[in-house]
Amino acid sequence: MLKFIKSFGLGLLYMLLSPFLLLILLAFALYGIFNFFLVLGQGLVRFFKGQPFFPPFEEDEKAERMLNRGLEEKAETAPVAGTSAGTTNVYVQQNIYQGTAPTNSQVPPLPSARIPDIPGVDPKVIEDVSSKIPPLPQEAQYQQIEDAKPLLSENNEEEAIDLREDASDGQ
Amino acid sequence: MDNNDRKLLIALLVIFVVLFVVLGLIGMAVRKLMEIQGNRLDREMGKPARAGVVYDAASFKKLAGEKNRRIYFKESLIPFGLAFLGLLVFLIGNAITKEWDANLLGRFGTLFYRFDWNNPDNFHEFFGINIICRFPPLVEDAHGGLPYVDPSYWLAYTVVPIWGIALVYYLVVSLGFLSRLLRMNKRASTIYDHKLEDFNYYDAFALKGNPAKKKEADEASPSKE
């Protein structure tokens, strides 16, 4: 019932406002005709100059590059279990034992590393590779892995500022 | 007021209520369409805004406006194409039939019931204004106002629907342009908002690591403790 009354009220409102709304719409439609021929002319000029009819926006390309770079950085900084080549992990030593350090028997056992499922790679191969990596010292195993960098890192912000400056120079 | 008048009044009331409800539903559909078109602009501007390439309201509006115009052009291609096709059919058809001054809308209207709207008996003067007071009867012509098909009117039957569809399509496309324009202005004012409405210097970061200022602030406003 409430929905019905709402529809009724809106209908009444639209009935009263419809001439003005239509007038606004017609004004934009007229502008659209002008815009159509303007964009068509610009596109044709570009086309006959050998350029694409609709060249991609410079801002879109820059954004794409920056976001891709951000994702690459994120992928590089993210730790991958069972591999060592090409990755540099930063281990931050936590002072867990402030007082008397426990003996080895008091330290709870660490959970065993899970071998990731990589499509197309035999898990045994990964197991072999990971068995060849020497184990880290006990202290280093209690670590805090640095989180992956956010998408817009400080470097990227600096780069964005550079790009803005470049753009303003270009204008 | 006799019984017939009462029935007529109730029927009129029902008709008006149904009319307003239908209009309301059409309005809601239009608003939904506007929301969808607005979301399209959000998708288009998502990457540049998130990457910081567009860094203030002016640059946001500049890029969004350019993209909006381009989308408007692309979407207008279909209705403009249809209108152009209609024009071609109109020119070729009239070149064949030699009936350049034919009333196309009137001829197309033969496909529907035709009512005598201009009959002065339908109107009644009310405070000096002529108001329609009854539903008009069918026109009295050779077909009695009933629908019929005349094969010689083929040009009107072809051209009028094409132009009608093109017009409605173009108005919908224009509505989309307007929706994106409104969304662009809204986003430009919210994304780069500098309002300090909920910001308080002492609640935020100013006192952290600055005991002298904290002491000064405490002394200035002891009630805050």
Q: What does the radius of gyration of chain A come to?
A: 31 Å
Mean pLDDT of chain A: 71
Helix content of chain A: 55-70%
Low-confidence parts of chain B, pLDDT < 50 over ≥5 residues? none
Number of helices of chain A: 5
Order of adjacent strands in the largest pleated sheet of chain B: 1-2
End-to-end separation of chain A in angstroms reads 59 Å
Helix and strand composition category of chain A? mainly alpha
Strand order of the largest sheet of chain A: 1-2
Q: How far apart are the termini of chain B? A: 77 Å
Over all CA atoms, what is the radius of gyration of chain B? 31 Å
Total count of strands of chain B:
2
H and E order of chain A: HHEHHEH
Beta-strand content of chain B = under 5%
Shape of chain B: elongated
The amount of helix of chain B comes to 55-70%
> What structural class should be given to the helix and strand makeup of chain B?
mainly alpha
Biggest β-sheet strands, sense, barrel of chain A: 2 strands, antiparallel
Description:
The complex is a heterodimer of chains A (about 170) and B (about 220). Helices cover about 55% and strands about 5% of the residues of chain A. With about 170 residues, chain A is mainly alpha-helical. Among the domains of chain A are: about 10-55; about 55-75 and about 150-170, no CATH class. Chain B is built from 5 helices and 2 strands, in the order αααββαα. By secondary structure, chain B is mainly alpha-helical. The interface of A and B includes residues 7, 57, 67 and 160 of A.
